Batch of 3 targets.
Target 1
Amino acid sequence: MRDLLSHGLRPLAERRLRHRLAALARPPGGPEDLLGLRVALFGIFSNRMGLGQGAELLARQLTAQGALVDRIDVAGELGLPGNLVRTEVRPVSELRAGGHDLVIVHLNPPEFGQLRTQLAPELFQVPIIGVFLWELDRVPRDWREAIQSCDQVWTPSVFIAEAITATFPDLADRLRVRPYAVDLDPMAQRTMPARLAARTRLGVDPDTFLVLTSFSMKSTLARKNPIAAIEAFRRAFPAEVNATHLIRCLDHAAFPEGLARMQAAASGDARIRVAAIGREESSIEDAYLACDVYLSLHRSEGFGLNLAEALSMGLPVIGTRWSLGDAIADHRLFIPVPSTLVAVVDDQHLYDGVAGARWAEPDIAFAADALSRVAASAHAPDTGPSKS
């Protein structure tokens, strides 16, 4: 879900930003009960990206808990184009000091810092909560000032909270784990008519066994690891088997070499479809409706929103177990893929500044066998796939 703007600020600008944030440090605190509180929730609401979907899920969760939520879109302030219309969203320009009891910022520290130092200080004279996401077992050292300028920091998984604690043990008392409530934003119901209609729209054979993988190149090719998913598909289904692997690749322009690698991995097998998808057409709902199983051989996940969404729709999910929260990993339809931990190597250099970090190398042979088993049981959906 961490698919935001850039690989960071220039060193001088970053040092200046960290210095300004350090002056805004505050002690841990903030409310534990949100009932009746007026909340300004800053997020990327007008752009189709994982962080935007996470902010919307959080808004619904806060509302369900009795908070009075104003969704404040900051896509423009961060230089992002608007490609999604939400009628209930307000611009930053409408904010007034004293209008809210609590500010929650659903951005990662670099963008949090930009926003915190750009906007009028009067807007932040209430408790501030930062909602931060990350994918490795350590976080960047330059997160300290952003964390210290929040009364609390929320994360959607224990894994992220543990990564922050491992890097900054002295800041652990600010952390709260609040998983996304995916069921508060339900998708279309999976029925046979809906499945067939979605396959028609996607140009997929109504009788094929359809495997779905979806990711953003901004989340890095190495971390999302779709080439391993392609290899698992090839091992699971010999050429004569009527199976299809649909791989949705968003933001391919962020790493053209990565798209070329995927196309090379898929070459020679017309059943493997690498679909380079623009943000304007990025809705995944048809793909969920059409497919028979979701496959994610990621090396690490901060939360795993696509996996959670697929499970919520009743889809079997085969995915790397490491880094996932229990709500996903313990689901009856989830098949956990074992892995070994290795040093992080990322050709897109997003994680170069995180010393000593590790992620998972999933067992492709296990994943291939799991795909075969799910395909064999595809005509008995009530039993669910076996985890053994």
Target 2
Amino acid sequence: LVVGTEARFPDAPTERGTKHLKELIKLKKDGYRAVVFFLIQHPLGESFAPNWENDSVFSKTLNDAYENGVEILVYKCDNRLDGIDLVPESVDFDLGR
């Protein structure tokens, strides 16, 4: 889902996504490196934000994960008819409402 140039996740409520974030928080607290990765595939997506309107629970949990040291990586890909390339620079994200 892209609004303007901002990619947002999730496009529908995701209990499973929230569960995975909670597992990452626990792993981080247990001393492991924990990373959540978002890949923007829409050509207009230039930044990332959680979709507070569609799933405030996931969005809050993503904020909690970040505050607890879970890394958030956001990248974009270039989709073409003959292949897909990962854009090497990371994309900015904003966790606020």
Target 3
Amino acid sequence: MRPSRSPLTRWWVAAAGVVLIGVVAFSRLYLGYHWLTDVTASLLLAIAILGLVVGVDAWRPAARRAELTRA
């Protein structure tokens, strides 16, 4: 299965997402809704969850291919 978007498009979408996350994090601090530790912890938690999802996504197709070749 091929990606449906060009690498340049995916890069721009990812960059826009990072900027949006930064703006929201800054606004939470600026408006006084959260402490710096709250925002930092939420960003670290999001990065950890993203890493887990990417790892499982990379592992599953390899495990599935191995299962199919054994059959």
